[in-house]
Design goal:
The chain has 263 residues and is of the alpha/beta class. It is built from eight helices and eight strands; from the N terminus they run αααββαβαβαβαβββα. The strands form three sheets. Strands 4-3-5-6 form a four-stranded parallel beta sheet, sandwiched between helices. A two-stranded antiparallel sheet has the order 1-2.
């Protein structure tokens, strides 16, 4: 048996193999049953999680269902008055305007500078997008400008669709088409305009040509409003778009702040 010793010890590796064999034996014996049918309702659960919920647990003789759920699920939930993470970001800008918000190579960006960059993107979006532009694509290299664009999209009251420049062209085309995205912020205008082929009309904002606008702008957002759209890998079929709302996004950020490295 070969495994990465930097991640697993021998006991864990052996348990994974043992449980996997047990899962296979159950499947072979009862191929038409759902995995949830193998759950023992008594104290010991005989199946380890295939999906982390009480209805579908996979084989494990050493943990109960409750133990697995409490160990593997992040139960952190924070009650905050803010309806969007922009409120929390604005508090930092007011409290620590000159403190460092971002490091990038030799560049140091303060909270005030980042906020001004974001305001510039927000103003540009207000001048270019319409009510029909539910999602704003962001096709940019990972730089401070990309972070400012993400914040600017939220300031403009929109949700963003992250478009990784290294993704295959077919995947990018699918994501843009499926989400009906019509406006994309990019720092690679020639590249994306030449390779993207979607049925809907696309407009582009060149991030390198945006004028700096220091005037603050923040749209009124609700926790239920969508913050961004992520697509699944599509390994089991067609990629699916998953909308993450501002309430969930705030909880994620505060969870990371409370317990760094929890993801």
């Amino acid at each position: 048996m070969k495994y990465c010793t930097d991640i697993f010890n021998s006991e864990t590796a052996e348990k994974i193999v043992r449980d996997y064999r047990l899962i296979l034996s159950h499947i072979l014996d009862r191929p038409n049953d759902a995995l949830s049918a193998f759950v023992n309702k008594s104290e010991n659960v005989k199946i380890a999680p295939a999906r982390i919920n009480k209805k579908t647990l996979a084989i494990s003789s050493s943990f109960t269902a409750e133990a697995l759920l409490s160990t593997w699920i992040n139960h952190n939930k924070f009650d905050v008055d803010s309806t969007s993470w922009l409120d929390l970001f604005h508090q930092l800008v007011i409290k620590n305007p000159q403190k460092t918000a971002l490091f990038f190579e030799t560049e140091i960006i303060s909270y005030k500078a980042l906020d001004e960059m974001a305001n510039s993107f927000a103003r540009e979006l207000l001048n270019n997008c319409t009510e029909e532009d539910k999602f704003i694509g962001i096709f940019m290299n990972r730089t401070p400008a990309m972070v400012a664009a993400m914040i600017g999209v939220h300031k403009a009251g929109k949700a963003y669709l992250p478009l990784e420049p290294t993704f295959p062209i077919l995947r990018l085309n699918y994501m843009i088409t499926d989400s009906e995205t019509g406006l994309i912020i990019t720092d690679q205008i020639e590249k994306i305009s030449n390779v993207i082929d979607c049925p809907q009309k696309l407009n582009f904002i060149n991030s390198k040509e945006i004028m700096r606008d220091k005037e603050d702008y923040r749209a009124i957002l609700k926790k239920e409003d969508c913050a961004y759209l992520l697509y699944t890998s599509g390994s089991t079929g067609t990629p699916k778009g998953v909308a993450i709302n501002h309430g969930s996004f705030i909880n994620l950020l505060l969870s990371i702040k409370n317990n760094p490295g929890c993801l």
